[in-house]
Amino acid sequence: MSPVETFVVVGGGLAAGKAAEALREHGHRGPLVVIGDEQERPYIRPPLSKGYLLGKEERDSIFVHAQEWYRENEVDLVLGTRARAVDARAGEVELEGGRRVAYDKLLLATGSSPRRLTVPGADLDNVLYLRRVGDSERLKAAFTEGARIVVIGDGWIGLETAAAARTAGAHVTVLGHGELPLLKVLGREAAEVFAHLHRDHGVVLRPGAEVERLTGTGGRVEEVVLADGTRLPADAVVVGVGVTPNVRLAQEAGLEVSNGIVTDAHLRTSAPDIYAAGDVANAYHPVLERHLRVEHWANALHQPDTAARSMLGEDAVYDRLPYFYTDQYDLGMEYTGYTQPGDYDRVVFRGSTAEREFIAFWMSGSRVVAGMNVNVWDVVDPIRSLILSRAEVDDTRLADPDVPLDALLP
Description:
By secondary structure, the protein is α/β, with parallel strands linked by helices. It is built from 11 helices and 26 strands. It has a 5-stranded parallel β-sheet with strand order 3-2-1-7-19. A 5-stranded parallel β-sheet has the order 9-16-10-11-12. Strands 22-23-26-25-24 form a 5-stranded antiparallel β-sheet. β10, α5 and β11 form a beta-alpha-beta unit. It starts with 6 loop residues before the first strand and ends in an 11-residue tail after the last helix.
């Protein structure tokens, strides 16, 4: 590989920042360009719904690197500029304004965008989403003592913003589509833990809610109207109904796209010299033997190292198990592994769900396929080892807190 090759990264999040770091660490000495459509240098998104939103973290803490890091490592940051197109044949990225940036290798770390609400009134002021740092700051301004906050969506973002709003003293109603928050993700027993958590903190949960329209005067939202005629007063509405991967560039460039940009285990796309990482990558996972697109911080943190090494010609494979975490009120949780409805037949609990101090294991036959530790710490490594070992485990021993997790390993 010639040292004068130009590597380009499109994206402004954690994956883009870590890719630039990994490329320099693994020996790329040629030109390195990072193109982001935000004015901010690459930053980390979890604090936007956690510490930064709660006022526990300073703004500077969200950035992947200090400003001077980019100068010291000769990374050309092109910020506040949208990549308009990728010409895979010519090896060029076209920017808005017409500038073309040539590349020898390209990494697409374009992330995802919140799904927008499509009901009448969805364009009123104070209908808020959470993806960018400015969104977090708008939420923080809206979450005040006595404010009436309606959260549409009871997934992770919906629940984390509800917790932040309640912590700030707001009155919070969460509108869920299903019977329980996170039911589809966690199954009934674990979902009930989060339902009780929020009710115990004064959040009103409305399951099976269907939003018909938002109303307001002077261009500002004042009310959420449900299909059953219920009218909920709202000083602000938070929408957390999922995200969609930002695949337009890849799609228009002719890359294979299916629930994200499809890659192999090396994070190579269907086009030569183009790679993808982070939220947007639907990557083949050699351990789980399926394509997987993971919208969590750990993926954006670790995938870029594999992408960088692949771009540099190494035989690197991304095979880490998915991991994510949440902090809500006094509950801290870590989840390791991957499962979905139909992949498991039961959940085994170790500890007390009532006291919100336990580990849950998702089981397929006698094997652990995923684990979630709630207010129990330093167990992610043995949970990961249990999953990867594919060991046959007895439910009784798994549920017994007196049996060390390491003792269950073959």
